[in-house]
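Recall that a protein's primary structure is simply its ordered list of amino acids. Everything else, from secondary elements to tertiary packing, is in principle encoded there. The following example makes that idea concrete.
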Amino acid sequence: MAQALSPHALCATIDDLAWLAGSWYGYTGEDPIDEHWSAPAGGVMIGMFRWLKQGRLYMYEFLAIEPDDRGGLTLRLKHFHEGLVAWEGKSVVRAFNLVELGERLAVFRRGGAFRSNQFIYRRPDDDHLVVVEEVRKGGELLTNTFSYTRGVAMRRSPL
């Protein structure tokens, strides 16, 4: 299990996050979302997130959890529009350091006191995954919560 390096970094291996692997499906409002994580291999895990709005692609992300030079792990992600057009610049990747790790819990954070972002991954049971994105700008905290179920894509019946 992970050991603390400092209050801001953890020493961990990719095997500590094996519980994240799988295909996860859910909704944010009426919009279908899905997130997929590979099993740990070669010291990394690779992921994909997709968000549809009104039946069309809104955005997707490619994600990787990789070892860093401190003996910890870093979540790296990049957003895309349709056509593999990146939101961020060509060589820009958003990186979040693993700062908390528990049984089926991982918190990745970047930024400082005034502006920071973090992703909280939590598996409350074998069939559910909850991902909370927190964005702090000054004194304001914005959150997005993505709740998933393991398995095949869920379809909502037409109204």
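The first strand starts at residue 3 and ends at 6. The domain at 3-150 is CATH 2.40.128.20 (Lipocalin).
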